[in-house]
Design goal:
5-stranded mixed beta sheet; two-stranded antiparallel sheet; 26 helices
């Protein structure tokens, strides 16, 4: 139970106490700041507390946004302020500094004065965007009447439903899913369901869809397409439920981020199994689709991490993009071109139902390749036309996303002096050269050639040289995705060249385990918790170490032994990264990260 302290004389006819109790607060009254401080000291240290002016008039949802959102240590709207346990000490000091209620002008609200004091002391106080919602402290009968009229003029529940939907989403999601999924979210909230339960239901539905696809029958494919669409409806619902009821959590952020990839890639595997039942081997296409989609995401993550806190971060290309955003149809066209998850899943579901897995994968590969070219070209152009100065934090984030292991670290230390003399564009060029050497050798030498091991060593050397100095160049954000290309595509090509049953499915499992590790790294960084421990990265070998191990296995083992080696490696890596990931997300205090709905 949280505790709310009303900081002044109660107002006759007010429903404020009832609203606060509905929000889960134990309500107490204090005549002045001194008594509020005394009551605050009596509240157990682990509880959230709130200061609320008894004259407050506003929507219940404005209070909900200010007082119950778990993501912020301190938050406020006019007339109401809350502090979670980590901000309690600062609140106590600010309450003492603000003085007694008698020392304030009669029209002033003590919570507002305390919030200003917190701001002055450097404590971050979140102030939610209320839009058309009302939050006010009227000082007289006439103002109170006007405030109540303003509250009555706006439908609180309609605003709550509208803001449950993300302000920036794809065309398919916005017009084909969100118009009804928000009501499913409200239905779930009223029955006490949590976003994590809905997220889990979405995963289970997608896994059942993958199982239906694996049957290889037309009926199974039709059922798989329908279930995949329903899984996406639930996927939208969990976020809308979190925004509707403000049920944010660290676990929820992790589940939402990782389950999307698990669902999509499990579905790829189901399609490949279904095709195999019909005599068509499409495992190479399934693995290619997973590689392409993961590399696309790494491009997004790397670019955003490199630029979100950069200074002088403007360019003519960005200005043109902002100008196009003011023209309605171009916004939707540009969002659809990049094949976001809604459009992509709708495409996969429809094609599954009416065509074959081979057609599904070819259309997906072509569409995602065009989308990747469009987004990457735009970001390269932005990077070349802006004169951004990247921070040490951004350089460290890019290094962490690179996932360099002991070999690359050792070569980076050896080349540290020489790397300072290289031109600014050298890092991505060197990383691209290393990936090209690795992939070309895998593709054009015979199976079991020792040259593959030599190429893997060259790849490790060039990878170390690429990260030997801080990644602050204009195009250095390309280094992590180029490392992903070098590792993932090399594994794909080596497995395909083995021409033995089971090698490509084993490679699919290996890349899936490694991709999970890379996604986990991304979401830790985005949550402000930093990368996984270096001990985990070293234990997994880093991207260059894994490429070398696969190359040695291909050169030294017969094809049947190679398949077993890939399977064992995939299982060991999956076990390592999952144990550490679950330990971190269950036990850490990393902040929850969710997209916001649009202002009312």
């Amino acid at each position: 139970m949280s505790t709310a302290i009303l900081t002044g004389a109660p107002v006759a006819g007010s429903s404020l106490e009832g609203d606060l109790r509905e929000l889960g607060f134990d309500v107490r009254s204090a005549a002045d700041a001194a008594e509020a401080a005394r009551l605050l000291a009596e509240v157990p240290a682990g509880r959230r507390v709130a200061l609320v002016d008894p004259r407050f008039v506003g929507h219940l949802h404005s209070l909900r946004l200010a007082l119950t959102d778990p993501r912020f240590p301190a938050a406020a709207v006019t007339g109401a302020l809350t502090a979670q346990p980590e901000a309690r000490a600062a609140l106590t000091r600010a309450l003492a500094t603000a003085g007694s209620a008698d020392a304030l002008p009669e029209a002033d609200a003590l919570p507002d004065a305390v919030a200003e004091t917190l701001d002055a002391e450097g404590v971050s106080v979140h102030r939610p965007e209320l839009g058309s919602l009302v939050a006010s402290v009227p000082s007289g009968a006439q103002q109170r009447h006007e405030a109540r009229a303003a509250v009555s003029a706006v439908d609180d529940e309609a605003v709550r439903l509208r803001t449950a939907v993300k302000s920036r989403d794809g065309f398919f999601t916005t017009y084909c899913i969100s118009p009804y999924s928000r009501y499913i979210a409200r239905w779930c909230a009223r029955r006490g369901l949590t976003p994590n339960q809905v997220t889990t239901a979405s995963l289970l539905t997608a896994l059942i869809a993958a199982g239906c696809a694996a049957t290889g029958t037309r009926g199974g494919f039709i059922a798989a397409g329908l279930l995949l669409l329903f899984s996406f409806v639930l996927d939208c619902t969990d976020g809308q439920l979190a925004r509707y009821s403000l049920q944010y959590s660290t676990m929820g952020a992790w589940l939402d981020a990782t389950f999307d990839r698990a669902k999509e890639y499990a579905y790829y595997a189901g399609l490949a199994l279904g095709a195999a039942r019909g005599g068509d081997d499409v495992w190479a296409l399934a693995l290619g689709a997973m590689v392409l989609q993961t590399v696309r995401h790494v491009v997004d993550f790397s670019f955003n991490e490199a630029n979100h806190d950069a200074t002088a971060n403007t360019s003519p290309t960005a200005a043109l993009s902002d100008k196009l955003d003011s023209v309605g149809w171009t916004v939707w066209a540009r969002r659809m071109i990049v094949l976001p998850i809604g459009e992509r899943w709708a495409l996969i579901a429809v094609l599954t139902a009416v065509s074959t897995p081979r057609i599904v994968f070819w259309v997906l590969l072509i569409g995602c390749a065009l989308a990747a070219c469009y987004t990457t070209a735009g970001r390269v152009l932005r990077s070349l036309t802006r004169r951004a100065r990247r921070t040490d934090r951004a350089a460290q984030a890019l290094a962490d996303l690179g996932d360099s292991g002991p070999l690359a670290e050792g070569f980076a230390a050896a080349f540290k002096g020489a790397a300072r003399k290289l031109p600014g564009f050298a890092a991505p060029v060197i990383a691209a050269a290393g990936a090209a050497v690795m992939i070309a050798t895998a593709a054009f030498t015979g199976w079991g050639s020792p040259w593959l091991c030599v190429a893997a060593l060259v790849y490790a050397v060039l990878s170390g040289l690429a990260v030997a100095r801080p990644l602050k160049g204009a195009l250095d954000w390309l280094v992590p995705p180029l490392f992903r290309v070098g590792e993932y595509v090399a594994i794909l090509v080596i497995a395909a060249r083995s021409e033995v049953n089971g090698a490509l499915p084993a490679a699919f499992g290996l890349v899936a385990a490694v991709a999970y590790h890379h996604y986990d790294t991304v979401y830790r960084i985005r949550g402000g918790s930093g990368a996984p421990p270096r001990s985990l990265v070293r234990a997994t070998g880093g991207h260059e170490g894994r490429a070398l191990v696969v190359s040695i296995a291909a050169a030294a083992l017969p094809t049947s032994g190679f398949t077993i080696a890939l399977t064992v490696l995939a299982g060991a890596l999956a076990l390592l990264v999952l144990i550490e990931s679950i330990r971190f997300w269950v036990s850490s205090n990393a902040p929850a990260v969710h997209d916001e709905g649009e202002p009312a």
